[in-house]
Amino acid sequence: MHASHSRRCAALSAAIAAGMFSDDTPSIMLMDLDQIHATITHIQQDAGYPASTLHTVAVKANPIGKVLQQFRDRGLGAEAASMGELQQALHVGFPPNRIVFDSPAKTRSELRFALSAGVAVNLDNFQELQRTADLLAAEPALMGQQQQQQQQLIGLRINPQVGEGSIAALSTGGAVSKFGFPLQEARAELVAAFKQHPWLNMLHLHVGSQGLELATMLAGVRAVWGLLQEIEAACGAGRVKVLDIGGGLSVDFATDAAPETLFQQQARLLADSIPELFSPNCSVRLVTENGRSLLAKAGCAASTVEYTKWSGGRHIAVAHLGADLCMRACYMPDTWGLRVFVCAADGAQKEGAPGVETVVQDIAGPLCFQGDRLAVGRCMPKAEVGDFVVVADVGAYTLSMYSRYNSRCSPPVYGYRSAAAAAAAAEKPAAAEAQLAAGGGAMQLELLRAGETLQQVLQFWNQL
Ligand SMILES: Cc1ncc(COP(=O)(O)O)c(C=O)c1O
After folding, report:
1. Could you report the per-residue pLDDT of 20-53, keeping only the tens digit for each?
2. b or e along 219-253 (b: 16 or more beta carbons within 10 Å of the residue's beta carbon)?
3. What domains sit in the chain, N to C, each tagged with a CATH number?
């Protein structure tokens, strides 16, 4: 099961038919809920991770409550990198024992809140470790609150210093990194910290995101596994309860390839290189924190084409999506490719349709700078006023990075499921069977998040 352009077009057609576009709402986002659920089934059941693995979803990738709920309901946890994300994870209803708090700059009150809420906490540096020790010495009850139900997890984020990926801004495992304890420089102190603080019981790493080779990630996990052995040799077997290997699987932004194989490859490499982790007797639980690989390919965004024009002999279509939603791709187009499609006024794909003219064109966004372009000089079906521009693979790190520049309202987000899958999810087997027999049926849409209003935008700038 994977997001395909025909599924995107079917969802767009359903949205157009339901009257979801207007002058006030010229663009929308669409999340393929069937795709999300297929990915969840895969990572939990088929990919080959140890059965006890806790997979969490990185909230930063897509913090929409109704998106996170899909993961919560299937037993996944949440990784939160700020107080806002932690509060959102709790608000959505993830049980505290399935939440990992990884903020790189936790204040004293945030640390206190996280410990009293009973979420797992990964500490980033020696000062934060000391701060936590002081906090627990002053308020031992903070730990006691959890112990009746389960053990409080407190870990150290290790930078194994194994190298960078192809995108420097997303690489966190180089010799110099703003994240974590540098393993090669601090090894002895790290073992000493576990000896000194009996409440330390977890190790964490996240060596980078998109552009990171699986081999580099694996080298990082192996290095931290070595540290874990050393800690257990010094502090006793069974001391480290959790090995949290972070996220960072790179997705294919060039095709509709399913993300599933990524997880399979990672699980296989882990099993080959650290078979002990897969033994039923292993006392270390694996935790993952993926974001992009769980969500990017399930999302697309669509905008009406407002105007078309010519300049320098180039056809230019002006749409209502640009660097506000696709910030990385517009600011760094050579690093982040975007697949952009042109659909007709009824949502049907124009590519390959009879009589459609193909031209070299730019798809421009609505913002006041020249770099605000989703596509530059691309040969594609000519976009006409009233057509739709569809951007693929925007399910992660788009709305969560939405730019306030030019004060434009962020778009509403709808989830879509094929009618058969929706009937099956609603436990209506007869309806699901009938829909499947009819080829899956049309897409059913549900609102996941309302679009922003102008009033909310004004509130942002004028709150006192
Ligand atoms: C600590 C941590 N965990 C998980 C993630 C999620 O990474 P990805 O979306 O690449 O899977 C990130 C991304 O920045 C991170 O910093």
Report:
1. 999 999 999 999 999 999 999 999 999 999 999 9
2. bbbebbbebbeebbeebeeebbebbbbbbbbbbeb
3. 5-10+23-27+298-414+444-462 (2.40.37.10), 63-290 (3.20.20.10)
